[in-house]
Amino acid sequence: MFSSRQLERYADVLLWGLEKARTKAFKKGDIVLVRFNQRATGLAELLQVRLLDRRLHPMMRMLATDRMEFDFFSHADADQLGFIAPGEKEMVNSLNGTVFLNAPESLTHLQSVDSRKITTAMIARKPLRDILTRREENGHFGWTLCSFTTPQLARHAGMSQKRYTDQIVKACYLNAADPVSRWEDIFRNAREIKQWLNSMRISSYHVQSQRVDLRISHGQQRRWIGISGHNIPSFELFMSPDWRGTEGVYVADQPSYRNGNLVRDVRLEFKNGRVCSVDAEHGRAFVQEQTSMDAGAARLGEFSLTDTRFSKIDRFMADTLFDENFGGRYGNCHIALGASYSDTFRGKPALLTKKRKQQLGFNDSALHWDLVNTEKKTVTAHLAGGRRQVIYENGRFRI
């Protein structure tokens, strides 16, 4: 597992990410919620001290055990699934930051649960997430998260716990004397690429690989963002497209665990902006169910690319946080079904009303599911005036 020095550095990097993720600086008395699984308690303790030393108010919440989660979804009726505890809305209305320390004991404990019950609970809690989104748009809220080694994560990734830990250490620069300065370097280098992408008058993208042939509409008033502190690690640059212009075929060759279900080799066909056909080597029925969760679940919410020069992740980790940032030989492209990110709006996100988001083609959904393709690919930008430019090839941006 992690050495005490590596844990200290992990806490430092997480705090850097939390502060970087907010457009306004934290001030004395701000409230930060730290949610963590039991195995990440040691890291949570280190974060609590750092938050206290900054004169912030940490709220420490250990998450439900796997047995608690299973029993809840097995026994809860419709009223219980949709129940929001008194004070929950008031709490999220007051939050200035959250840190999530992901350390799951199991990835499949909900496999036998009716996933429609999980969907019902997710939809019921969406108004709380909407509050946090609005607070973030106004600069009053920021968040970050990370993952911690567990036996089940390592097993599903086909690694020993030591090797899995080594992958996290490598990806997050936890053996560097000053990992925060390494992240600052990545932040500056990524800014140059984002400026390059955002300087072009792009109308659409064409993503091509052995099994992918997908066209994505850039949309009006969009910008590329990423490597902003929100995830540790995070090497992706991404934008939220106009979902209405999505056409073609996308294949996720990277497996994905969601709600206790494993899906593999998911094939999605889009027509008129919506998924019109679903196939998968494993988990087809579950994918179909997820894409029918609500009106926006079968639409595109995110388009992302990862450059191999940034990411040192070269193994499947059975954890979306790492898998969506896969570097390897050819980097990765991933799309997300469901909710868009309003901070990819080129103007002030705080000015975006629900109606304006709809007009611009920002997608809204209780779902946000990243599906990753690691094949060798070419991404061509179609520019205003008819010109074309390859922006990504062989795992790197063509800057």
Describe this protein's structure:
The two termini are 38 Å apart. The chain has two domains: 4-179, 3-Layer(aba) Sandwich (Thermophilic metalloprotease-like); 196-397, no CATH class. The model has no long low-confidence stretch (mean pLDDT 96). The chain contains twelve helices and 18 strands. The radius of gyration is 20 Å and the shape is globular. Strands 5, 6, 9, 10, 11, 12, 16, 17 and 18 form a nine-stranded antiparallel sheet that branches. Strands 7-8-13-14-15 form a five-stranded antiparallel sheet, covered by helices on one side. The chain has 399 residues and is of the alpha+beta class.
Features:
alpha+beta, Thermophilic metalloprotease-like, nine-stranded antiparallel sheet, 399 residues, 12 helices, 2 domains
Short description:
Helices cover 33% and strands 28% of the residues. With 399 residues, the protein is an alpha+beta fold. The chain folds into 2 domains: 4-179, Thermophilic metalloprotease (M29) (Thermophilic metalloprotease-like), CATH 3.40.1830; 196-397, no CATH class.
